[in-house]
Amino acid sequence: MERNLPIGVFDSGVGGLTVVKEIMNQLPQETIVYFGDTARVPYGDKSKETITAYSRQITRFLLSKKVKAVVVACNTASAYALETVQKGCPVPMLGVIKPGAKTAAASTKNGRIGVIGTEGTIRSGLYEEYLREISPKSRVFKKACPLFVPLVEEGWLDDEVTRQVSRRYLAELLEQQVDTIVLGCTHYPLLRKVIQETAGDAVTLVNPAYETACELREMLAERGWLNDGSSAPAHQFYVSDGAEKFRKFARSILPGDAATAEDIFLKVLTL
Question: Are 2 and 223 spatial neighbours (Cβ–Cβ below 8 Å)?
């Protein structure tokens, strides 16, 4: 394994950039190849079979770029496709659900954990399943929040409409006195400010994007696959539609040079 090979990351749209941001912060020497399936977003209302087929296509594309690992930066794809796709993948694959569940179990004080996500992620029950394994005494309360993804995709991150939607979605969880809420979609950390305002300071928000980057760093270190930093990262970004919109969004949230470089490599790719 060539330690200086890139890391592949994919998501249904722009939400996976929250994972990319955390990887860049924690592993600044690594090169990332990102694919955002912006033509087929959202994944949350699609079937397991469809999401698995999409994930296979994208994984094959990332493997063609000689990546050393693949991060599935999409909760719905992690829930529905990761286990199947990783069986035929020659490099390690990481999802975002297990890291988030571990942190939620460690964070809660009253054992009442809320999980918000797309309809697909909530329907899969995987967060609940992992949390039962890690913390059997905890109670898990789930809420699908399908409108959050299009609000993020539209860039309505700090908007009164988003606040109203947040209040309606979170009311049920707050009635259950949850003290921890898992942001179970990689789009949701971009709404962290609004969600925290709704939930209140007493509620801890768990960002699986951060925890996934930590797990990736540990995995690469254990295998001796950390980039040696002998050359500057040369990130590559691909989307299936809406390149200019994606470019603008990426530059608004990615750190350092990745956010300001004029030569961000971005191509529209039809799978």
Answer: no
Radius of gyration of the chain (CA): 18
- 69 near 143, Cβ under 8 Å? no
Which residues are tagged catalytic? 74, 185
Residue 99 parent element (H or E) = helix 97-107
Predicted TM-score (pTM) of this structure: 0.87
Which domains occur in the chain, in start order?
A: 7-95+211-268 (3.40.50.1860), 97-209 (3.40.50.1860)
- Asked if residues 77 and 50 have their Cβ atoms less than 8 Å apart, the reply is no
In angstroms, rounded to a whole number, what is the distance separating the alpha carbons of residues 191 and 109? 24
Q: Please state at what angle helix 208-223 crosses helix 17-26, rounded to 10 degrees.
A: 50
In tens digits, what is the pLDDT along the chain, a chain of 271 residues?
A: 589 999 999 999 888 999 999 999 999 999 999 999 988 888 988 999 999 999 999 999 999 999 999 999 999 999 999 999 999 999 999 999 999 999 999 999 999 999 999 998 999 999 999 999 999 999 999 999 999 989 998 889 999 999 999 999 999 999 999 999 999 998 899 999 999 999 999 999 999 999 999 999 999 999 999 999 999 898 988 888 888 888 888 888 887 655 443 333 445 555 5
CB atoms under 10 Å from CB of 259, counted, come to 14
Structure tokens at 42: 């959202």
